[in-house]
Structures are given as C-alpha cells and as structure tokens.
Amino acid sequence: MCWDANLRFNGHQFEYFNFNGTKWQNVNKAENVLYLKNAYRVLLTRARQGFIIFIPDGDDKDITRRPEYYNGIYNYLKEIGIEEITSSHCTFLLNKESQIN
Fold first, then answer.
1. Residues 90, 86, 60, 66, CA torsion sign
2. What's the pLDDT score for residue 69?
C-alpha cells in the first residue's frame, strides 16, 4: 500500500488533505475526514499473510510532494513499531520464497 500525502502526521496529530488541481487543500468537513480515515483503515486491515506500506521519499523540486509531507507519517509508523524493510530483508525473503517453491 502506498501512503500518500493526503493523510499526514505533523508530530502531534493527523492532518487531512485532498489534491485539487495543482495543490493540496485541507479537508475540513467531518464526514470527509471520516471517509479518508476509513479508506486507510480498510486498506490497512486487509492483509492476510503480510503487508508492506510504501511511503514515498518526496521531492524538494515538486511542491506537491515535499519530503515533509511524508516524513511525519514515516516517523509515526516507526515510533509505533512498524519495521522498515531494508535490502537485506528483501534478499532474505526472496531466498526463503525460493526454498518453499
């Protein structure tokens, strides 16, 4: 699952956005906030045997994908115990999969 900048964590609370035209806009209506939270809840609870959350690095050259949009959620997920997958994890998982097949 790719975690985009529409649901951000600013270090204290979550912030909700919609991309409209060429910029992000705050979501203020309670029903739209609930819809966005529920969309992520559904995606995060559908895994059967494993789950990967991909968080883009962001790009300082693109004002719609600034790194700070993604850093907050990355740090939040690390703080609550989500483990980062490194290249050594990928090698281990690929080797394990080839032994099963």
1. positive
2. 95
Asked if residues 85 and 52 have their Cβ atoms less than 8 Å apart, the reply is: yes
Phi, psi of 16 (to 5 degrees): -120, 135
For the segment 74-92, the average pLDDT, to the nearest whole number, is 85
> Whose CA is closest to 68, among 82, 58, 55, 78?
58
Paired tokens of 99: 């032994």
* Angstrom distance (rounded) from CA 36 to CA 17: 9
Residues paired with residue 26 on neighbouring β-strands, in sequence order: 17
What pLDDT digit, counting tens, does each position of 8-38 carry? 999 999 999 999 999 999 999 999 999 999 9
Q: Enumerate the β-bridge partners of residue 2.
A: 54
Q: What is the largest CA-CA distance in the chain?
A: 51
